[in-house]
TrEMBL record:
One GO MF term: anaphase-promoting complex binding
UniProt record, GO biological process: anaphase-promoting complex-dependent catabolic process; positive regulation of anaphase-promoting complex-dependent catabolic process
Official protein name in the record: CDC20/Fizzy WD40 domain-containing protein
InterPro entries assigned: Cdc20/Fizzy, WD40/YVTN_repeat-like_dom_sf, WD40_CDC20-Fz, WD40_PAC1, WD40_repeat_CS, WD40_repeat_dom_sf, WD40_rpt
Region listing for Disordered, in residue ranges: 1-20, 39-62, 75-109, 123-143
Organism: Prototheca wickerhamii
Keyword Cell division appears in the UniProt entry: yes
Keywords: Cell cycle, Cell division, Mitosis, Repeat, WD repeat
PROSITE patterns for this protein: WD_REPEATS_1, WD_REPEATS_2, WD_REPEATS_REGION
Length: 495
């Protein structure tokens, strides 16, 4: 009968043909498991009865975390990368998607379905897989340090000279800022904002440079007449002595322990010991124009000097020797110092700069590494090796380089610029990658100094203001309380 007739059963034909993709990420392009419709499995050793729901949820979370770790280590997926899940899947469903589906349920879509890969690349075939979670989860990437682009404090400094060749600002180790304003020197305490007038050189003279000693107890003051005064600013505010030797204005000074070097428009560099009766004991003669910058190296042996003759010199102060009396220069007179030595040959003399060299800074991180900056016709920062005697790197800043300072807590440099940008840059060394650009001054940023804790930078410009910037990171194990002591966004006058 027709009712009892059975139609022959249809045989399912399986095809084994597979066209592979030759892309580098082909192993990720085929989804072998259906993630959206996957079912959760109970944890091993747990019953499926009452009370097992909480354990199942914990096991699903553990499975998801373990699967994410495997993807991160084996396939190179960053931790926390989004999965190829459907828009409607929840977090729990996503966690359970890594559990193999129950064999009683057939897949809802084709087994070999082409999908877009969710990683950029795979590990190299020979590279070992590190299954320890310490690499991806134990040491997260450090967040990029944020540098504020604006100053947190501004001080009015009426009378601050707009002269590229002077050095009128310095921050002591005792947290006191000295600034030369016209014929006077003022001290501003960063701890309590107290202002003290240290000296007034008179109506016929002008302050041209200031420099604190290493411990911050003595302050050297250079004048336009060529005189140099030493002041005790730690205990009793009084002048210790006045030292001669220069015949023109004293434009820059640099301390090294108890020794003091001074540079002048008379083209001479004098090495002094304030404890000695003589005003100076050594004269360094190697520049043909005004001395713009001086800086002692951390090894206390080498002295860098920059001049308006576009020349950078490095001197060996211990090896400086010569004939008695002044030879080759007109600055020191035998009458003012009957016994002194003269050195005319520096260890290095570099002429790569095409403008005056004022900005100088020795690296506190690498021995013998010196940074220098050129004027408006040069605009470059150069990194030198005093050990090799060569230039390691040069970068065009696009603006006159007026001052440089190396960070003590990080391998970075801050540079102050004049024409035509009047701004500051922070550079990461040794690559000289620009980290930040800071603006605020309306005139050339001629003067720059760093706080004792190495975090705060104070700058002075021809706009007659001092601005405080929080630039460098704090030292490890210390808290940055100095910037809080200075105050925030309070505008006052230093006079």
């Amino acid at each position: 009968m027709l009712a009892g007739h059975r139609s022959p059963s249809r045989h399912v034909v399986y095809s084994d043909r597979h066209i592979p993709s030759r892309a580098a990420s082909s192993r990720l392009d085929y989804s072998l498991l259906e993630r959206d419709a996957a079912t959760e499995l109970p944890a091993p050793g747990r019953g499926g009865g009452a009370g097992s729901g909480e354990g199942l949820g914990q096991d699903a979370g553990s499975q998801a975390a373990y699967a994410q770790l495997l993807r991160s280590q084996l396939l190179g997926c960053p931790p926390g990368s989004p999965e190829r899940a459907s828009a409607g899947s929840s977090a729990a469903g996503h966690a359970a998607s890594m559990v193999p589906r129950s064999p009683s349920k057939s897949p809802a879509r084709k087994l070999f379905r082409y999908t877009t890969g969710d990683v950029d690349g795979l590990r190299a075939p020979g590279e070992p897989a590190l299954l320890s979670p310490a690499g991806a989860y134990g040491s997260p990437q450090r967040a990029e340090r944020r540098i504020p682009r604006t100053p947190f404090k501004v001080l009015d400094a009426p009378g601050l000279s707009d002269d590229f060749y002077l050095s009128l600002l310095d921050w002591s180790a005792t947290n006191v800022i000295a600034v030369g304003l016209a014929s006077s020197v003022y001290l501003w305490s960063a701890s309590n904002s107290k202002v003290t007038q240290l000296v007034d050189v008179g109506p016929d003279d002008v302050v041209t440079s200031v420099a604190w000693s290493s411990r911050g107890n003595y302050l050297a003051v250079g004048t336009g007449s060529g005189a140099l005064q030493i002041w005790d600013a730690a205990k009793n505010i009084n002048r210790i002595r006045e030292m001669g030797g220069h015949t023109a204005r004293v434009t820059c000074m640099s301390w090294c322990s108890g020794a003091l070097a001074s540079g002048s428009r008379d083209r001479g560099i004098l090495l002094r010991d304030p404890r000695d009766e003589a005003p100076f004991h050594t004269c360094l003669s190697g520049h043909r124009s005004e001395i713009c910058g001086l800086s002692w190296a951390p090894d206390t042996r080498h002295l860098a000097s920059g001049g308006n003759d576009n020349t950078l010199c490095v001197w060996d102060a211990r090896g400086a020797a010569g004939a008695t009396g002044a030879t080759g220069i007109t600055s020191p007179t035998p009458a003012s110092s009957p016994r002194f030595r003269t050195a005319t040959t520096p260890v290095h003399r570099w002429r790569e700069h095409e403008a005056a060299v004022k900005a100088l800074a020795w690296s506190p991180h690498s021995h013998g590494v010196l940074a220098s900056g050129g004027g408006s016709a040069d605009r470059t920062i150069r990194i030198w090796s005093a050990t090799r005697g060569s230039c390691l790197q040069a970068v065009d800043t696009g603006s006159q380089v007026c001052a440089l300072a190396w960070a003590r807590n990080a391998n970075e440099i801050v540079s102050a610029h004049g024409y035509s940008q009047n701004q500051m840059h922070v550079w990461r060394c040794p690559s000289m990658t620009k980290v930040a650009t800071l603006t605020g001054h309306s005139s050339r940023v001629l003067y720059l100094s760093v706080s004792p804790d190495g975090q705060t930078v104070v700058t002075g410009a021809g706009d007659e203001t001092l601005r405080f910037w929080n630039i460098f990171p704090e030292a490890k194990g210390k808290t940055g309380a100095m910037a809080r002591d200075i105050g925030s966004h309070v505008r006052a006058s230093i006079r």
